[in-house]
Write a structure and sequence with these properties.
Blueprint lengths: L5 E4 L1 H8 L4 E2 L3 E4 L8 E6 L9 E2 L8 E8 L3 H4 L6 E8 L19 H10 L6 E4 L6 H9 L5 E6 L2 H13 L5 E5 L29 E6 L18 H21 E11 L8 H10 L20 E5 L4 H4 L13 H6 L1 E3 L10 E10 L2
Parallel strand pairs: 1-4, 3-5, 8-9, 8-11, 9-10, 11-12
Antiparallel strand pairs: 1-3, 2-7, 4-6, 6-7, 12-15, 13-15, 14-15
């Protein structure tokens, strides 16, 4: 490795290389001297970001991580210019994952297997009104549309405008016509019950009245500890706690918007039990009784005076792809058997992921 000139990239760029990408100029921090177009180089990752952009680096530091070799597409001056385009075309990488970006863009959308499973667990049906609460970049949204042959109404919300615009572009490219996208804070999706006023007309503009959607997919922001490959994660304990608290707020909105008899699928791409099994336990406890002390007051638009929540099983052909919930969690044996936990060290060799399916029912 030491025989090749050095190119140093940041952590995000290095992880992209491990997923099959080439090195884009914007991800390069430093490089050895006298590099020309067509030079065979070794690519190293500076995990801690100590390399100043544009630095001269002739030898990798001891804590740099090697990710592969490649051929430069431009000279050194252009490599550190922060311009557009590919700086190094990878020829030998630690993991031989082929780049998939741009493959049949109008025919398919690249997703991990657990993400695909989440759409099948939701089991959307034609003619239903479905909410995807944190929808960007639109992979699961487009899958829901495909499973229903574009014959349902999907409301897709996302907090940031640029993410919504990117999602619209993806959906248009895939010829999805059943989705209505909105820049909207998902914690503020619930409107007054009077919004429905007995009308049978589909409302395609948030906020929405309680008990409105047939099915809801809640794939909230999470700690992402299941994503692969990851070279390092600097997540703090406070951040982990913050994720679970935010997820509970979103879950309460989802429960309120779900019709009696409707289904809610909760999924994350993390292995953190506080965001997975423990959140399921919290939900089952909080919504086990309409008179629970933890329930909002009846004067709140988020109240739920006559409905409770139950955890439901998924078909065996989906369940067999995953493991049960963690034994160390607060879930019962039966409850652990109903949730789907994907272990990044499991037999599928995929990302860490978690899925749980709930049904809202009338209080008996």
């Amino acid at each position: 490795l030491n025989s090749h000139p050095v190119v140093v990239v940041g952590k995000t760029c290095g992880e992209s290389v491990l997923r099959g990408a080439h090195v884009y100029i914007k991800g390069i921090l430093g490089a050895a001297s006298h590099i020309k177009t067509g030079t065979l180089v070794s690519v190293w990752v500076d995990l801690f970001g100590v390399t100043l952009r544009g630095s001269l680096v002739n030898q990798p530091a001891t804590d740099f991580v090697f990710v592969g070799n490649g051929i430069t597409k431009v000279n050194r001056t252009q490599l550190i210019s922060q311009g557009p385009g590919i700086g190094v075309e990878m020829t030998e990488v630690v993991y031989t994952n082929p780049p998939m970006n741009g493959v049949l863009p109008q025919k398919c959308y690249l997703q991990t297997l657990p993400s695909v499973v989440a759409g099948h667990v939701l089991d959307p049906q034609e003619g239903e009104i479905i909410l995807d609460m944190c929808a960007a970049p639109g992979g699961k949204t487009s899958h829901i549309a495909a499973l229903t042959n574009n014959k349902c109404t999907i409301i897709a919300t996302e907090k940031k405008k640029d993410k919504v615009e990117a999602m619209k572009k993806n959906l248009t490219q895939l010829n999805v016509s059943s989705v209505h996208c909105f820049v909207w804070d998902a914690t503020k999706l619930v409107g007054s019950p009077s919004l429905s006023s007995g009308s049978t007309t589909v409302q395609n503009q948030p906020p929405f009245p309680p008990n409105y959607f047939d099915r809801i997919l809640l794939d909230p922001p999470c700690s992402g500890l299941g994503n692969r490959p990851r070279l390092m994660d600097e997540m703090s304990l406070n951040n982990l706690i913050g994720f679970s608290e935010y997820q509970k707020k979103l879950f309460h909105v989802a429960f309120t918007l779900l019709k009696p008899g409707g289904y809610l699928v909760y999924s994350t791409c993390t292995i953190n039990p506080e965001e997975n099994e423990q959140l399921v336990h919290w939900a089952l406890t909080k919504y086990s009784s309409p008179s629970s002390p933890s329930s909002p007051s009846s004067s709140s638009p988020l109240s739920f005076p006559s409905h409770v929540l139950e955890l439901v099983s998924v078909p065996q052909y989906l369940k067999q792809l995953s493991q049960n919930g963690l034994e160390s969690s607060s879930l019962t044996v039966t409850e652990r058997e109903k949730v789907l936990r994907f272990d990044p060290c499991g037999h599928l060799d995929d990302i860490g992921f978690f899925i749980a399916k709930f049904r809202k029912k009338e209080c008996e």
